[in-house]
Amino acid sequence: MSAKIISGTETAKAIREELKVQVAELTEKHKLIPGLVTILVGEDPASQSYVSAKNKTAHALGIHSEQVTLPAETSEEELLALVDKYNKADNIHGILVQLPLPKHINEAKVLYTIDPNKDVDGFHPVNVGKMMLGEQCFLPCTPHGCLELLQRAGVETSGAEVVVVGRSNIVGKPVANLMLQKRAGGNSTVTLCHTRTKDMSMHTKRADILVVAAGVANMITADMVKEGVVVIDVGVNRIGMSESGKAILAGDVDFNSVKEKASAITPVPGGVGPMTITMLMKNTVQAAKQLAGLA
User: Fold this and answer.
1) Per residue in 33-51, pLDDT tens?
2) Is the CB of residue 21 less than 8 Å from the CB of residue 29?
3) What is the DSSP code (8-state) at residue 192?
């Protein structure tokens, strides 16, 4: 029997409708319009596409959105000064510096300069530390989106064997941390696998819930999972081009074979991807509430 498809597109749409109501209420009752600035340095096509999508989504929800595009030769000092300007801006509640940055700019220094109360990407060490401790903070958007997909699909995480493949600071480590915490959507027993794991399939076959964020197309195959597993596939890999010139995408999981054994699975595209921008908007609304003392 083929797996239930966990649609990130549909889940993100539902969350955005909830956010639209919250933004309208903040605007009407409190004269507060959540504000987000996205800062892009250089002309990386993928980054331009992401920033454009973020701004489009913000406008659709009634969030005030500003986009600043800087030339690739912008100095680190100029970028830091711009971040500081928005740290002090009353109409901006969320600051997002699109990564990657040009090589002459220290990414960590820039991210650490963002006010933690406006760090809607959840990358500042203050927010990372709070997340590790299980305190209220801005959660990184993609891991948060993975948890929302599981919860809204009715997947029981408490006591579940969770295997995370990938140990990046952006997805793998935060997902593992969030799922082992004593909280709703957590309470799992977590195994974290990576490129030096000796027998990957030994671990993945034990998983009740498998989260894959390794960046390798189709690396998880049907023989590596057990019957009834729930699969969250974070990978987005370009594996070719169609005749019309459109990129052909594949996840880190061999979808066609694994869906025949899984009880539920996210597709690529249309799975985790749409959730990332949606959780960014959720963090921005939360930031506006907190900075206005309404949280």
Assistant:
1) 999 999 999 988 888 888 9
2) no
3) E
